[in-house]
Amino acid sequence: MLLIPDRRSLGRLRRDLALVLPGLLLTLLAVLVLWPLAAISAALAVVWVGVLLFPLTLALASLFAQADRARLRRWGLEITAPRYRARGLGAAGTLRLVTDPRRWLDLAFEALIALPVRMLTAGTALVWAGGAAAGLTFWSWGRLLPVGGAAVPGQWALALVVGLALALSLPAMVHALALLDAVVSAPLLGGAATRVRPGPGTRPVPPPSADGPLRDSAWTRMTVAFLAFVLVVVAWPVTAAVYAVDPALAMVVTIAHGVAPLLAVRWPWAGLSLSVVAALATMFATLPQQAVAPWPWPVTALLAHCLTLAVLAVLHRWFWAVSTWSAGAVLTLGALLVIDPAVLSGPALRAVMTNGVVLVAISGTVVLLGLTVRQWVLLSGRVEQAQTLSAEEMRRRYELEERGRIARELHDVVAHSMSVITVQAGTAKFRLPGLDARAEQEFEDIAASSRQALGEMRSLLSTLRTDDSLEQASLPGLADVEELVASSRASGASISARIDPAEVPPTVGLTAYRVVQEALSNALRHARGAAIDVRVSAADGALHVAVTNDAAGTVQEPIPGSGLGLAGSRERVTALGGIVEAGPTAEGGFAVVARIPIADPLPR
Length: 604
Prior knowledge:
By secondary structure, this protein is an alpha+beta fold. It has 3 domains: 7-196, no CATH class; 213-389, no CATH class; 475-597, Heat Shock Protein 90. The chain is built from 18 helices and 7 strands. A 5-stranded mixed beta sheet has the order 3-4-5-7-6, covered by helices on one side. Strands 1-2 form a two-stranded antiparallel sheet.
């Protein structure tokens, strides 16, 4: 169903075109650079000059791969950063690039795999857009064609309808091509699970399966793709020449045989179904030559069937491989039953039966070997998982011990000192007779502030002593900013405040509270006696915090540790996708301004 593109569809079209079209240019540049360098490096490897060029080739391949990852991230696809081996220093460190399999994978992708994919996606997008433009403008240039029939109004109308259909379907087609580019490129560039950030007009790309590292490995997919490509290249001419099959039909059946193991890597049911259909089509296509060549299983079809079996046996549960092997055996038996006995007799019948026995025996051996390899891989994975869990548990235990030590230090030093301050301030009016009302109120405010700080300290200590996250602890929020300002006024400072009681997530409220708390502390320490203004408001999907103080009446001496609190506030706000600006004002005061996004901070 064709729909008139709206602004959202046009925005998605721009993003998709920005992914598809530059991808081809980047790949062509990579091929022009990497192919000659790789050829020269291989040719000169015997005299050790090529060994020195290989690191350069691999480094350039990784640069092109990084550009591809950045292109996919701009489109909206998040890719886990690949793990490159540490390079090291000097010539020995440079030569270590040759031992990094991730860089070899970058080279294989950029020099071999990306080119046909990008030519397909970019070429299809250009042809589709060109067809739409040609159809819509046929009325203006059609009359220039040498054939006089171009002036017929019916042809103009047909061209206009075709061009309009292509133009309306262009956003959907380009988006499908962009998804194809992302689905092929993301696993090979990242080698780990990926996800699409939710945005207008962007549908999630299914992440690679997480059933096992071998199935999700880019090397596994590339190896299967390479073997399938070799089989197609060899099987196509062999099937057409030896069995006198039409080249187009031979191309279709051999490509089906090659695609089956590729599908089996991710979807076992699809690989099984396509393998059986391709085998059946091959039997019918090669039936006329059954008496002069191997039949019902040509050698190339047998190899392709075994490749699919190997993929299913190694990467999936046993019943997929056994089901495919049984299907091959049933097809062989069916071929023997439906063939005309008068055609097959004597040596020809023995040849067909021998071909079937060879198929059953070889494919069965492949299944057994594949299942054995799978069990070995699973056992190795369990051992590695157990080692990883053990290391994680040790790290977690060490972290808890370290947090416990920090909690003890805080309890013995800071919490004890705060308790002493609380007691001294609370009992001052009893211990110091003759205090006036203002002095008693001052000590009461000091005692209240110290009790609040002591309560937060005890909450932090309980969190440090357990394995709970900070989100489970009782922490202040936006609603507590008024109380924070009121307690700060007790110090004698002149503070004006206007706080918008907006509904914000707890993390945003906590961050705003900490920003105001640190800004007030800085103003009270460095600008004693200056007027302070606090503004907190919600607008444009963000929480705006501004704390400004006038110029200090007297010169203040610098306090050790100054600036650390603002750095901490900046880290808090930046983690939520916001920004913090702090600096002197034109009137000689100081201002701290923060913008904290309330919604999802991921870019759209």
